[in-house]
Amino acid sequence: MIRIVIADDQPLVRAGLRLMFQPEPDVEVVGEAADGRQAVDLVQSLRPDVAVLDIRMPVMDGLRATSELLQRRPASQTRVLILTTFDDDQYVYRALRAGASGFLLKDAPPEQIVSGVRMVAAGDALLAPAITKRLIADFTSRTRPDPGRPAPWAELTVRELEVLRLLGRGGSNAEIAAALHLGESTVKTHVGHILMRLQLRDRVQAVVFAHEQGLLIEDLRDAPLG
Prior knowledge:
A 6-stranded parallel β-sheet has the order 2-1-3-4-5-6, sandwiched between helices. Helices cover 48% and strands 13% of the residues. The protein is an alpha/beta fold. Helix 3 links the parallel strand 3 (50-53) and strand 4 (79-84). The protein has 2 domains: 2-127, Response regulator (Rossmann fold, 3-Layer(aba) Sandwich); 143-222, Rossmann fold (3-Layer(aba) Sandwich).
């Protein structure tokens, strides 16, 4: 059973989300919060699997709440899914840097939101496709990292580097497997090695790392994922 806490300052939104999850046999809403401070307190008390947070809330916004929750992560393995009407790029990147495992817009189809909770609970990263494309465009337009410094990813194998680049472009295990003609279990193993060698917490950090290191700049037109 996936236990979730919902945080949104609008009672109607909270009620709608609760109704959305109610028919799902593997998802249970165990708590609701009207602001980020309440959300942090609830998560610390209830220790749900996923916290579904809005960004703009009174007292403490969703980004600060995400940071505070994940700083306390040893006491709670809760993962964060940001669900908001605001798709400004600065919010997306700040949410990812804060440690959120996913970012969806409230106008996403209900089945996508439910699926998103399951994906985040399973440890996967999740970004709305349109958001992923804009992030890639933003990072690939920036200056390349200093070539005089050793690359942090230098110890990765060629195959692991290919997997990391596709991760950075938002690829799921299935998409990466198809692009590289590998089995999904093999891709999962590569992802595990990448996270361990680069000392990254999860797939979201791998996405941010790939963007920051300019790994999406080279050979972008020839990359298997569009």
